[in-house]
Amino acid sequence: MNAATAVTSTTVVQILTAFAALTIPSLVPLVVGEAGLHAVDVGTFISIVYAAAALVTIFAGPLVHRFGAIRTCQFAVALCAAGLLMARTGSAAGLVAGAVALGLGYGPVTPASSHLLSQSTSAANRRLIFSLKQTGVPAGTALAGALVPVATLALGWRVALGLIVIVCLLVALGLQAVRAGLDEPANNHGYNARPGILSSITIALSQPYLRLLALTAFVLGGAQMCASTFLISYFYRSLGYPPLAAGAMLSVANVAGVVFRLVWGAAADRGANPRLLLAALALLTCFAQAIVAWPSLMASHAAAMAVCFVMGAAAIGWNGVLLAEIAEAVPVNQVSTATAGCLFFSFGGVMTFPALFGAIRHASGGYSASWLWMAGTAAALALILLVSGRRFAGSVVARG
Prior knowledge:
CATH architecture of the largest domain: Up-down Bundle
Largest sheet: none
CATH superfamily of the largest domain: MFS general substrate transporter like domains
Number of strands: 0
Helix content: over 70%
Order of helices and strands: HHHHHHHHHHHHHHHHHHHHH
Distance between the termini: 16 Å
Number of helices: 21
CATH class of the largest domain: Mainly Alpha
Strand content: under 5%
Shape: globular
Number of domains: 2
Radius of gyration: 20 Å
């Protein structure tokens, strides 16, 4: 199996599906005076996307084993195209259906790519390669924030959506050229015993180390989504930053997330203990979100940018290390299923934490209590990761 082709293909799909999922939220603020796209609140739209992603993730293992990783990616990208076409109607029904389709496309991509990369990478560079592929998520998010508004202002939102649909369809077709070389070898690794529908959750809960990784994905997934959801509104509405300056804080966090996904992956490949590294990232997340809760400190743009950089490096940079650990913890024919199970809990955090964050903000009348609550949750995770060393020693099974 060609490792470079596998990494390139899965990274492109990761970027494109993340881009598609964030397209509607990126263009809605620019079309306030136009009909359409306001029948469903943006927050509700994103919640539907991630709820659908969480649901389909349960079935991702069987899908990958039945159709192959690249075929699953083709389905995913095509579903994203269909979702944007439905959202293009501007009706409430079209937006809801579009959000569901986008979530169904977004959900299975990571399990499919983990399945593929676990076969095409060696233990010496696996965490870096997984981290490289995972840079597609913040990269896709950043591209959506940068390109969608430009295309919307220049061409109109319906044309902009149409262009993205065309790109999705072209990528889905283009993947056919590499499918034979990447999907067929799966039949030679003992895949006749296909997992059951709920096997992803069963596997994720079957051993202590995977349960620890699922908990980590739940908390850090929630922390990542809170940062992505609330940083701009916090700096703009609460601290009075100009819109561009507030948006720059999220951009800084995402850039740090992209860069440090590679840094953390390389560090783990060069001997850093992945569990302790994840504990350190949880502590950094705690530190950054505790500091950002102080309005007086965040009045300085330089200090705010530094804190957002640290928050992005930790709360956005953890994914590749964790996904590679899942691939190391199970036999090769269970990688996609175990990844799907842990991602189900990650999507649970993505849906749960922003809602709790918003509820605390509403009850307290400001953002500080919400950031401090999130910091406390990250600190609790770090403590669990730090004290779990002996208990989980030997939990990782031999791959084969």
